[in-house]
Post-glycosylphosphatidylinositol attachment to proteins 6 (Cyprinus carpio), 731 residues
Amino acid sequence: MLCPPDLTYLNGFYSKTPQRLSKYSWFGNVRLHHFRVPEDAVLLRWLLTVSRGSGLNCDNQNITVHFRAGAPPVINPIETAFPNSTSVSLAHNLTLTIPSGHSSNVTLFNVTHPKPGDWFLAAHLPKDEGKIEQQVCGLPSCSYLFQAQMFLRRAADLPILQHNIPLYQTLTTTPALFKVFVPEFTSRLDVFILNCSGKLGNDCGLLITVGSSTLRQGSEVKQNCSGLESCSTSVLIPPWNSWLLVTVETSQTNSTIPFSISANVTVGCKPLSVSSDFNTSAFIRTIIAPQSNSSGGLSNTSVSTRDQPGVRANSSEPVCMRSPSVLRDEQDVLSLRFIISSSNLTVTSDLPTVLTLEHSPGDSGGMFIVQLHLNTSSLVGGFARVKACLTPSAPVLHVNLSQTCATGYVSSNESQALLRIPFPDAAVWYLSLQTVCNDSVDCRNASAKVSASVSVSACIDDCGPYGECRLLRTHSYFYGACVCKAGWQGWGCTDGATAQSYSRQMAAALLLTLSNFFFIPPIVVAVYRGYHVEAAIYFFTMFFSTFYHACDQPGVTVMCIMDYDTLQFCDFLGSVVSVWVTIVCMARLQDPVKYLLFMAGTLVISMAMQLDRRGLWNLLGPVLLALVIMVTSWIYRGVKRHQCYPPLWRRWVLFLLPGIVSALIGVCVYVFAQTDSNYYYTHSIWHVMVATSVVFLLPPREKHIPPWGWTNKICSYRRCKNEKVELYTVT
């Protein structure tokens, strides 16, 4: 068959919205971009644009971009330890740099012959050092935006290699491209080059590549045919039910090389066939029984496919594996379990037991978990252990051979095994189980019974006691990640290298909560001087700040009296309103005006807190406005009296200046000094400084107001009060 000389190529362009980058502390800080690469793509070109936003004194900045086909990239930029029994393959990454003084970086990254399907890009800034930055107008200093755009080139009429039918092709400087379909149960794919002739006689200098690029080692099989007129390359157990790309290129320049190419697929064996009379009652019992079992174990009443009546073997092909039926049970987003038709799988040494586990693209954002349990009373023959191999796209049919897979073992000494794969590829996965014997015994009759539990969850063990599992989303794609606390790190919050001790957690909780008791002196002073509304606001702030910080603690030292979000809102609101009413009170306005400003300011601050609780202007705005009101009132009084206001130097030296210094120290610590590691004592200093400043800054009691604000009465008759404006002054 003669192959068409030219191919038709088509282009495509895909773009994602720019996203602001964050410093990395957990996977939720990355900006994940999801693209779909169509079949027959021959070139993938990423246009990566990083732009710098507004900011002063921005130094050189590195941005890391990770690439992966099939699932989100598994990354470890801060080099934490992964949980035990976790199989990890880190994604390919690229570092982009924006030099100081430059506003952007544009980088092209090419992938030749990319694998079709889902591709993911994850971008982030370097490690978060824990500095707590206050936002100004909603934007942090030196912000960075990342945008990924994909240019695609694909062949619209790629020649198909049919099995054992040669194609005749003339090769020029442009590589020749073909595709071949690999059916299910294929054990071997062979590609042959025949009748090749070049300028150097039989040496055509050809290079055969089978497979597509995933930026992982081993995704492509290459064979150099230099010096050979005929050559071939083989792929053992290629991906089932998929198209494989075959590329033929030459090292000779300015030459035309005719050759023929063919492919052969070997179906070495198939599993036992199931009859049309499927036993549904067995599966009904399999589904119902585990739901009543709190441990999630499998039902013992299930009937395996091999033991069902009506099961027959294909007499024309050898049986090379056992393949029990598996039910896919979707429970929720990133919550999936596989129910196996037999609770106890018989695993022998002659044939592997293979479980087919179908994953949809939506399952790739979770954690793939396989648990094995060996029934130690069922061991027969020269049993040593059971080896488990977990692979995507095609199974391992001989577990004793050296093949790449996620591996686990169960034996008489270790009867349980666990396999975990973060962000598994969106493919059909296969779990191969086979008995491995002692070298000195006959292995023909060795067998064991193993129970398997297979599931997909959003996070590893729900992130444990020191983490929280978060369900994240990029457009319509969901993925899970753990956000850790109390110094714990890692994908499952299991890396305790920087973990806080219990005494450290308790000290942090006590400092942050008990430091709020410094608001008791301001409350007492306010009540004594007749400022009852102000005292109520200080008490509100003290109460909610105490219980917010008790609820906000990491680890085990936590106590929440109500919803966390409610406590946080009340704490932030009370803090700013306390500052607002204190400065307005210092303006010494008449009561109707003062209380109008109290109410109006509280309503505006509540709205601002709902929009952005951590915005720096939520504090600076009310402070600046209150200072303007206070200074205006003081200037008016000073001009009216022809003297400085307040008039007494003792008021300035003993009260105003210490109060201003305390407030400035608290603001500087709050804005510039707080980090994640020192938060518990720097924020406690903020509590103490603010409360201390209120004690000094509250104006003295009005002369017509008695101590504690009690009304003077003599024998049930009220004493007359002179409420002229002149008596509202400070002497």
